[in-house]
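Contributing new records

If you add data, match the layout below exactly. Sequence lines come first and carry their own label; structure lines follow with theirs. Keep one chain per record. Anything else will be rejected by the validation script.
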Amino acid sequence: MRAFGWMVLLAAAGLAAPAHAEAFDPAPWLADLEQTRQAFRTKYANLEWLERERELPLETLFDDLAGRLKRARTDDEARAVFDRLKRKSGDGHVEIEWPALPAPATASQIAAPAAPELCSGIGYDARQNGPGTAAALPGYRALPASNLNPFEAGMVSAGGAKVGVLRIGVFQPQGFPDLCRDAVRTLRIPADKPCDESCQDRIVTWAYERLTAGLEERLRQLKAAGATVLLVDISHNGGGSEWAEAAARTLSVEPLVSERRGFVRGDHWAKQWRETAAQLQAASAKASPDDRKRLRAWAGEAEAAAREAEKPCPASGSCGNLAKAGYSTGLVGSASSGAFAGQDWAVQVFSPAQFDYHDGVWGGPLILLVDQETWSAAEEFAAVLQDNRAAVILGARTGGAGCGYTNGGMTTELANSHAVLKLPDCVRFRADGSNEVRGIIPDVLAAIRADDGRQFRARQISEKLPAAIERAQSLNRR
């Protein structure tokens, strides 16, 4: 009676009764979850780490998520279940990209928008390159700024040593939009015209040259300023590219051996290895006798890796979904700078060869400052220096992203929601056999969290810096 009377009153007032909301159906979302489960089983490079080290069995995880989906009442709650999967994995490279919902157009949007500035339009954004921590250390004195040098640097005294401080906020040019603008001017690229792939390649090649030269210049300046210890601040560094391996080698006079590479079995990596083998075989046909011999040997290694990638391995098999071959730098894990100079095939075997860097520009006691927001290529940089006993790591355990996606990775579009699932397809194995995705554990721990205020973080680091200096000096004397 009360409901009937309420509807009569609405009708008398000229108002319609609200329509019943369509009931939420979890079935399509459960189908998406099952598709995601299969992707984890077959495409996820860190599956063994998830189950053994994280102690999170895949089936247990997905059964829990299925139960949560069945209890969901809205699409938003269902999406939250998938977002929970990303958090629970603890892997910085597990991503779920939801399709963007169209926003209602406003009057200002209806008018023709201004064209984006060229560099921002192709992905150059200073927000990738934050301020870090070390510049807030007590007594820090900045080196003179230079429009030609993208890196901030300075000096601080601690533990009886003069410490040179170098900030690397990201390991790729896209975090330095001024480099892009300089490239546009220097290369005379029209700023008012679209910049295609070739145009972008010219810009990024030029910018990498400036990054490398700028890094080496700052190292020489710090030496000239009297630095006896170097502190490289990679806190709040989100990663970047393989340039991290070249940057690491500028800091060590001892040869660095990169981490071993693991890769997911299947067509994605089989294709990459086959292409590498074909390119090396083609290069061998016009190489010198000595180069021909090693190019064919490397091509044979790539072919063997391709066969390993193609090897069927059911979930119950003993081989697992990962195979191993080569290093994070390619088929060669260690080479002196310039070892492959002038060779078109160099990058196929040793990725740092694409950059014009020099080994051991620093070479003295070295400390790396890290925190929970140090990720991906920044972890690679720290791992190769720590594994080769070339640096002391100071700070907090890093975020844990490890190796990411090669050549676009192996994405999965979910059939119902059309979300895109991105899973890392490679692993970097440390010298002790561990997976880099666990994060870099510092040699000298500091009581910092990434969300602490910068001044507080700096005070905590300052307390631990003398101990890190002592360890770095001892390591450098070995």
